Every structure is written in structure tokens, then in C-alpha cells.
Amino acid sequence: MPQLTVETIRRYVGDTSFQRAEKYFEQNMIMHTRRAGDTLKADCHGSRSTPYRVSATVTNGKIANAICSCPVGAQCKHIAALLLTWLHRPEEFVAVEETHAALERRSKAELIALVEQMITRDPGLELLLDLPLPTDDAVSRAVNLYAFQRQAAAAFDHVADEWGAEDDVARELDALLDIGDQYRAKGAAAHAAAVYQAVSDEVLKHYEEFQDESGALGSVVQHCVTGLGECLPATTVVAEREQIVHALFDIYQFDIRFGGMGLSDDVPDLIAQHAQPSERKQVVAWLRAAMKQGDGGEWSSNWRRETFGEWLLKLQKDELDDDAYLKLCRESHRLNDLVDRLLALGRVGEATREATQAEEHELLEMADVFVRHGQAQPIEQLLMQRAHSSDDERIMQWLQQHCEDTGDTAGALDWAHKLFDKHASLERYVEMRSLAQRLNNWQSVRAELLKELEADKLWHVLTEIYLDEHEIDAALRSLRKMQTGAMGNVLYRDLVLDVAQAAEATHPRDALQIYLRRAERAIDERNRSAYQQACQYLLRVRELYTRLGEAHVWQQYLSKLQSQHKTLRALNDEIAKAGLV
């Protein structure tokens, strides 16, 4: 009999699920408990109208595996509730045979009667009688695509309109995919491909009806892609191969038109590896037709054309002459590929003109192409022009990095300063410090930066800088100025505490005052969580008073605090728990 401990269950599902499971156990949410060998099975009431099906296998005191029909699927509160029920009330579990063994000992007549009884209870199961199972006899018969389509469609027929319904659908489809995998294992590629195509077609038909936050339906489609990709090289029948290639392309086209969710990431590589020349030619025709279909906004249409064009260029890279290649790049808005080929042909002026018309993000991508071809000067000049008219800081960042890469430290420092002026931060200050130190002019640059920050009243940046440079006096001064600004204490709470921590060693009284103000503000929030935080601050206060030899001052402060807030039971409770009294 499966042996188990509370700690084993807690570790398996995590603290949060375990705590929720305790309530489920106490409320008797587990029902129809049974045990087949080491496997525990039951139904569990949950947030949905129908109970979840739960099962867990316990071997040698360890949870070998668990399955739940809820969206979480395994390490959930329902599984934990099942295991807690077994742990505390094992006598409730009825011993049953393993399913396969129970069916094996039945006669044919009994099995027929059993199936009829099942269909009587759930008429929807009658559809399974049409399902071609992967037996040797079924493999020898012609493929019945329609039968698989009906089975896939049935998974969507009675979907409940509630969160997580797609997980239930995915579970039914996974069972169908398992049949496809069995067909493939038997070498019946056509039958297996029919299953994968039927399932993927049906999912794509209904995909927009679901949120699919768990990715359950997406995983089903990816399973179909993998299965179809393995069926393609396993058959030489032309009609079967055409069907598989078409199914793969349908998934790819749907994915791209839906925005690129990763459903078909493997499709181009599968076609490249396994498709024959005539099949690749057909894919080229489909891609060209798809590229001409403009739907959605301008940006989405351009992105789709670029994506289709990328695959087209890969498929036809050895077939197109230069003019045809450039034409396809322009048609598909593949500007990087266009500029790359023009530069390879030595047509620098034409490449530069194309770059001039590009948007900022496109231009930045092209910049590395120009550099790779040894043509940095024209793109650098173009980016310098854009830097004066564009708010895109990435342009200045590219120019700064380019100066560093080419050994122009002074130029890099100039661009870094421009970026600092647009958005001052400690990170950019440190970057400028590194560059200026190489030029041996850091002190003059530093003085200029600090003057700019003070003029702009950017006290939080100054405080971060002084902390980084271990100038605690200066950090405390800028902190006091920062805190006079609106909401300073809220926006920069962590910074204030960083200053307090840094000041403890050399400026303990300043640190002490910061902690006291924090504690008092936390108490004013009037909730237990804030009281707990206040006590953490007060522990630091006590430590600092003790270090200063003023423990009596601490006791006076604490007594006064408790007297002022004697009606706040939760606060005084937390003070006691923290060991402050």
C-alpha cells in the first residue's frame, strides 16, 4: 500500500497549494475514492461545475506522478487533497483492478455489454465507435480522414463557457494524438498524418475562441507539427506527401497571420530538410500568394510580408539572380537583405539611398550590415543626422558603441554625455566615468555632471552617485533635498533605506533618524503587514542606540511609542513577536 507523509505532499505541491488542499480535505471535497495498486484515484469538487478527475501514483513513499483535469494539471491543491485523504482516511479507498487487467478478464460479450452501458450513461461516447484504432487490421485499411476529423471536432462540441475550458479540449485532443503517435510507431505514416492534420485543422478553426493562457492548445498544434514533420520522410506516396506539406503550410500561415505565436517555428526547417524540389516549388507559390494578401494594419501587413519573404529568400537563394533577389526583397520589405545584397554587389550609393528611407528601428538593424561590409562611414553619417531629429535613444547608443569599437574614446564620451543629458542615471554616470578615466579628464567631467544634476534638481540621481562613490555626507545632503520633493519617500523608498544602511557605520545618528521616520510612517498605515515592517526598522534603531551607548534613550522612545498606540493591538502584538520588549 502506498506510504506517504505530510511533508512529502507539501514538498510536491508547494506551500500555497498545500494550504488550500487542507481546506479541501476538511470540507470533504474528495469523493469516489479508489485504489488500483500504487495508484490513487478520485473525483474532486472545485471551482467548476463538474468535478476534476485526480490520480496519483505513490511508490516507495514518493509521488511518482500525478494527473488532474484542472488547468494546473499535476502539482495542484486537488492532488494534494487526494493525497491527504489517503494519508488520513485510507479505509475510504476501495481497492479496484487496474483498468487493463479488468478489461482483459472480460469476455467479448461482457465487453460489448460494458461499452453499451457506458454509452447509455454518456451518449457522446458513441462517437468513439467510429474511431479507427491503431491495430494491425486498421493499418491495412485505407486512411479515413473524415473519421479523425469527426473525433477532433467532437472535442469542441460541448465546451463549457468557463476559464480553462481549453485545457479540457486539449486533454481530449492529446488522447487522439496518442493514437496518431501509435500509428506512426507502426510505420503507418499516412494514418498518423491524417490524425495530426485532423487535429491541427480543428484547433486552428476554433483557436480564436479561446484565450489559451496555459498554452494547452498551442502545445497540441506543436505536437501536430512535430508528428507531420516525422511522417513526411516516412512516405514516398506523392499524394500523401502533398497532403502533409499542405497541412504544415496551413499551420504556418495561420500562425503568421495570427501574429506569430510560435506554433509553427519548426515548419520552415522541416520543409527544408524533407521536402522534395517540386514540393518546395509549391510552397514558394503559396508564400507568394500569401504575401500579396494585405490584411490588418500597415505594420502587421509589413511584418507578415517580411516573414513570408524571409522564408521565400531561403527557399530560392540558389535560384534567383541578383535582380530577381533584389526585387523580392523590395516586394517583401526585407530591407536588411536588400542592403546586404546591394553592398555585396558594391552598389554602396544605392544601399545608402535605401537606408535613408528606412524607419529608425530598420536603420539600426541596417547599420550592422554596413559595418560588416566595411562601409561604416555612410551609415554613421546617416545616423548622426537622425540623432538630431529623432527621440530614439538607441541611435545615440549605437553611435557611442561604434566610437568605442573603433577606438574613438572622445567620440564615445561625447555621445554618452548626450545620452546622460536626455536621461540621467547612475548607470550612464558610471559609463561616462569609465570613458573619461581613459582620457584622464574625469575630474573636470565629473564636476560638470554634478553641476548639471544640481541645476536640474535630480537629487535622487545625485544620491545614487554619492552612494556609489561612498561619499556618505554628500549622499545624506542630497537625500534631504530629495525628500522635500513631492512623493519622494514613496518613489525612492529603497534608495532612502540604502542610504540609511550605508550611513550606519560612520553616521549612525543620521541612519537612526531615517529608520525612525520609516517606522512611524509604516505605523500610520494601520495594517499588520506595515506593523511588521515598522518592527524591522525599530530593530535597527535599537541596535544603533545600543551601539551609541544610549540604550536608555531607546527604552524611553519605545515606552512612549507603546503609550501613544496602546489601542493598536496588532502593533503591540508585532512588537512583542519581534522581541523589541
Strand residue content: 5-15%
Largest sheet: 5 strands, mixed
Order of strands across the main sheet? 4-3-2-1-5
Helix content: 55-70%
Q: How would you describe the shape?
A: flat
Mean pLDDT: 90
Count of distinct strands: 5
Distance between the termini: 52 Å
- List the total number of helices: 31
Can you tell me the residue ranges where pLDDT is under 50 for at least 5 consecutive residues?
none
Helix and strand content put the structural class at mainly alpha
Q: How large, in whole angstroms, is the Cα Rg?
A: 34 Å
Classify the oligomer: single chain
Question: Topology, please?
Answer:
Elements: H1 6-13, H2 15-26, E1 30-36, E2 39-44, E3 52-59, E4 62-68, H3 77-88, E5 94-95, H4 99-104, H5 108-121, H6 136-140, H7 145-157, H8 165-185, H9 189-206, H10 216-231, H11 238-257, H12 267-274, H13 277-292, H14 298-316, H15 322-331, H16 335-344, H17 348-356, H18 360-372, H19 376-389, H20 393-405, H21 409-422, H22 426-438, H23 442-455, H24 459-468, H25 472-482, H26 488-491, H27 493-503, H28 508-524, H29 528-547, H30 551-564, H31 569-577
Parallel strand pairs: 1-5
Antiparallel strand pairs: 1-2, 2-3, 3-4
Helix pairs in contact: 1-2, 1-3, 2-3, 7-8, 7-9, 8-9, 8-10, 9-10, 9-11, 10-11, 11-13, 13-14, 14-15, 15-16, 16-17, 16-18, 18-19, 19-20, 20-21, 21-22, 22-23, 24-25, 24-27, 25-27, 27-28, 28-29, 29-30, 29-31
What would you note in describing this structure?
By secondary structure, the protein is mostly helical. It has helices at residues 6-13, 15-26, 77-88, 99-104, 108-121, 136-140, 145-157, 165-185, 189-206, 216-231, 238-257, 267-274, 277-292, 298-316, 322-331, 335-344, 348-356, 360-372, 376-389, 393-405, 409-422, 426-438, 442-455, 459-468, 472-482, 488-491, 493-503, 508-524, 528-547, 551-564, 569-577; strands at 30-36, 39-44, 52-59, 62-68, 94-95. The chain has a 5-stranded mixed sheet, with helices on one face. Strand 1 (30-36) and strand 2 (39-44) form a beta hairpin. Helix 1 runs antiparallel to helix 3 (77-88) and helix 25 (472-482) runs antiparallel to helix 27. The chain is flat and about 90 Å long. The model has no long low-confidence stretch (mean pLDDT 90).
